[in-house]
Amino acid sequence: MLLETTKYMRYKRLSLLLALAGALLVAGGAAGLVAARSAAAPLVLAKTPHPDRNAARAQLRSLSRPTRRRPLRATVSLYEHTVRRLTLRRQGCSAAKRGVGGIVILDFGQPAYNGHTYGTYLFSGRFAGNKIITRAMFAYAYGYNRCVRRPSSLRIRLARGTNNYHLHVPSAYRAGRKWARETMALQHALSVHGIEDRVTSAAADDVEPAWDRTFHHTRDFFRGFRDARTGHTLFNFGSLDGGVGSVWNARQFFFVTSGMRYAQAIPEIYNHAMAREWAELAHIARHRYHRPLRFAGVMTTHTSGNHGMKPRVAHKTLVRALVARLGASAASVPPTLTNIRAAD
């Protein structure tokens, strides 16, 4: 099974080639922020003939500059190798002790069917049924709630994650529908046990065009999730694999990022090229479908070993790419950061 580190290596060479250009871009963006801060009213055009540039600076300032009191910090999302509840409870407790709230994705691997029930193949290769995954996620939520230091306003959206890698299921549509139902079942359990003020339930899908080149299985999974009508969000935390037209067309990409009513994007931003691909999709969505992409945050996979983009840098990189492509009409990107790695 493919892991995220493999995908990072695919982009590593391109990142190195673009490193110098990226440094110059960051320097230029920093200068723009200083200029925007010195203006009393960035959108007043009396002193400048460049309204688009002025609006872009205001956008950068509002979207990418963290406050001094509360600097941006990333949650830790995990590739899960087990559904052992004690292990998941410890993971949740560890997350709470870091003192970070936001979106947490627990990726349980590719959708699967064992002849009796739908579930996933974990990153250990073992099968886990949907209901067992739900119990494991509740254990994570329980650990998180128990270990948060009181008083605290910390809260997380806990997303049950999967991917679109060679779905081994009789029906991708039914797999998506059941994924939505179990997302709702977790929310019910959180409510019954009085944890819903600290943890809420969501779903997530690591959507990679190269893993489903026909788009059919991915489309059916998203339709199944939609038709369950649970009201829960399905985050797409995937990539564009070369951008619009490289594998999928614009309509296909738009459906799994914002077109499906419950879909939102947490794009993987590992380098400047990936940010530009998302900016181009956002441009197409705005001008062809007359709707913005619904961004929920940014995903990274930084470790001390791979030297990938850090979450705050990735967020700024995406914001700048969006502003460069769309100017003042660029879609906002919430400062919700998550960094995914293999579970210990």
Plain-language structure description:
The protein has 344 residues and is of the alpha/beta class. The protein has a single domain, classed as Alpha-Beta Barrel (TIM Barrel). It has an eight-stranded parallel beta sheet. A three-stranded antiparallel beta sheet has the order 3-4-5. Strand 8, helix 8 and strand 9 form a beta-alpha-beta unit. The radius of gyration is 20 Å and the shape is globular. The chain starts with a helix and ends with a strand.
SSE topology sketch:
Elements: H1 4-17, H2 19-38, H3 51-64, E1 74-79, H4 85-97, E2 102-107, E3 110-113, E4 118-121, E5 127-129, H5 130-147, E6 156-163, H6 172-192, E7 199-206, H7 216-227, E8 234-236, H8 250-259, E9 263-265, H9 272-288, E10 298-300, H10 311-326, E11 337-342
Parallel strand pairs: 1-2, 1-11, 2-6, 6-7, 7-8, 8-9, 10-11
Antiparallel strand pairs: 3-4, 4-5
Helix pairs in contact: 2-3, 3-10, 4-5, 5-6, 6-7, 9-10
